[in-house]
Amino acid sequence: MKTALITLLLIVCCFAAGTIAEPRLAATPLYKRHEGKPIEVLLGDSRRLFANQAFAKADAYFHSGMYPTIFDTRAPGKSSHLGAASGASQKDEHHEAGFLGEPKDIIDRFSRSFFPSEHKHLDEHSAADCDDPSHHHEKEGEHEHESEKAEGSSQISEILPWLQLTAELDPNKVENYVVGSYWLRNRLGKVKEAEEFLRLGLRNNPKSYEILFELGRIYQENHHDLDRARNLLQAALTRWQEQNNDVKERDNFLLSQIAWHLSITEAESGHWPEAIGAMQIVKSVSPNPAAVDARLAELRQGVIPNPETAAHTR
Amino acid sequence: VNKVWAIASVVIKELFRRKDFYVLFIITMVVSVLMAGVNIFNEPRVARYVKELCLLLIWVSSLVIAITTAARQLPFEREQRTLFPLLAKPVRRSRVLIGKFLGCWLACGGTLVCFYLFFGVLSMTREGTWPVLNYFQALMLHWFMLGIVTALTILGSILFSAPSSNITICFAIVAAILFLGRHLNKIALQLGEPLQAIVYGIYYLIPHLELFDVRDLIIHNWPLISWPVWAGALVYGACFTALFVWLGCVRFKKMVIH
Questions:
Q1: B245 near B97, Cβ under 8 Å?
Q2: According to the model, what pLDDT value does residue B58 have?
Q3: How many CB atoms lie within 10 A of CB A101?
Q4: What is the average per-residue pLDDT within B58-77?
Q5: B217 and A116: CB-CB below 8 Å?
Q6: Nearest Cα to A75, choosing from B222, B183, B153?
Q7: Coil, helix or strand for A47?
Q8: What are phi and psi for residue B250, nearest 5 degrees?
Q9: Measured between CB atoms, does B79 come within 8 Å of chain A?
């Protein structure tokens, strides 16, 4: 009886302490932290440290598991191949397949059968597959080739969990939203999901010209809503100017992309002087101004430049 | 052989009576199924992250089962005073040790079959394929790797007095080999002599457990490993297992048991 009464007394004390402490603690930042997502509660701001790992994992998945470690000759660099493929960053012309080098000893040679040691991307067949005549023999016919391509595109979705996790870990990693949007929109045809992902990125990074540019492209290329596309691209250009005018290394690669798309949008809307103005910006940063002059001449004649010629201007 | 098998069967029965395996198996199932239910941009075909997580849990669980089971065999028998009547019987000490090893290794094999069956079913529900031969290669390599770990742990249980220290040391060695084993030669090449020779020597001496880790090949649907190469890895694993068991037998024969 005595034990039961003491237990009851302690329970009452705990309950009373809880009712007194809870309202006072509820408004404190420490307490509010527990209302966040589980990953935020568990890791706090330190979760950002793991964001690059998750993003690198997406890149590793893109290479079907073949990816350099910190011990390899070419350790993972700043720019991912995933980002370069999506156009989020300029292409780094490294020879990815060569990071393993020649086998250093018998164990090294033997071990290469037990981990991915051949360079291939998720959306393409390996070099060995392509060189193998039996592969061609087995996969004859255009229809089968098309189905292979479709399968490759569907496999790209394997990188998505890591991009989603990266966004959870570091909501301010802008490259992640741009890369995710590219693969969702261009390769998987998921325009709605791409737009939602970019809007999430924009909420977390309201000053990002990269995200505004990608949103502008969605409205231009997928929704064909030229007014909204123009507003977004102009906003991207303004943000770019705010953030790049006073810096030494300007992001001219993205400026040329923003101005190019703005020029096309203006031309499609029939705003020719604005289109020419935007193309002049492209010319000012292009490594190939002669190619841009040809596009300017087209605009002056009232011809909308072919989007495929954009690559020649960069 | 009958005596060895009798000792081994007791170990197998003991493992399946204990709750370790069931708890780890249920945790693996629950976590994998929960992660498989996560919505990834409304894309139901995404499978590889689930496979990676499931295989990671299987590897961790199997190592926990192998090391903890093997580490407690002899110390537990000694504590319970059941080792003395066992050694009093007409059975050699080496056979007792081989029986203990065989029991642990076979029990690990049994648990691996359960784990890989679950993994296969989970993968099939996501990807719609059942690459039995790939899974068989991965399972066998995994099992032979556990053979090395089990033999090493049993040797440790003879060398170290407390099971806790043996478990900690074995986990540290296994983790170090799995993380660094493949890269030790690259580290060695960046060092000057005589460190380079020492590190390269260690590289050749250690059992390369990472050879048996073919998770990336399974996750990313790579083709089968060449059968002769695969068989070579099994022979390599069997050699190290035999070495550790033999060292254990030698040490156990000379051991004074109080």
A1: yes
A2: 95
A3: 11
A4: 90
A5: yes
A6: B183
A7: helix
A8: -60, -45
A9: no
The pLDDT assigned to A73 comes to: 61
Contacts of B160 (CB under 8 A, 6+ apart): B166, B169
Q: For an interface test with A, give the residue of B48, B190, B219 to mutate (most A CBs within 10 A).
A: B48
Decide: A285 and A246 in contact? Cβ < 8 Å: no
DSSP state of A185: I
ipTM (interface pTM): 0.81
- CB < 8 Å to B182, chain A: 111, 115
Q: Decide if B187 touches A, using CB distance below 8 A.
A: yes
- Taking contacts as CB-CB distances below 8 angstroms, the residues of chain B near A59 are none
Question: Which carries the bigger pLDDT value, residue A203 or residue A32?
Answer: A203
Only one residue has tokens 């990608």, namely A214
Question: Residue B42 corresponds to which amino acid?
Answer: N
Taking the CA atoms of residue A270, residue A271, residue A275 and residue A276 in that order, the dihedral angle to the nearest 10 degrees is 110
* First and final C-alpha spacing in chain B: 27
- The answer to whether A114 contacts B185, with C-beta atoms less than 8 Å apart, is no
Q: Do A114 and B42 count as a contact with CB atoms less than 8 A apart?
A: no
**Does the distance separating the beta carbons of B210 and A110 come in below 8 Å?**
no
CA distance A180 to A173: 11
pLDDT of residue B75: 86
In angstroms, rounded to a whole number, what is the distance separating the alpha carbons of residues A230 and A196? 19
Structure-token pair, residue A22: 């809870």
> What is the reported pLDDT for A136?
39
Task: Tell me the average pLDDT across B87-96.
Answer: 82
pTM of the model: 0.82
Three-state secondary structure readout of B51-98:
HHHHHHHHHHHHHHHHHHHHHHHHHHHHHCCCHHHHHHCCCCHHHHHH
DSSP B222: P
pLDDT in tens, A171-218: 888 989 999 998 888 888 889 999 999 999 999 999 899 999 999 999
For residue B131, whether the previous peptide bond is cis, meaning omega lies within 30 degrees of 0, is no
Is residue B189 within 8 Å of residue B110, measured between CB atoms?
no
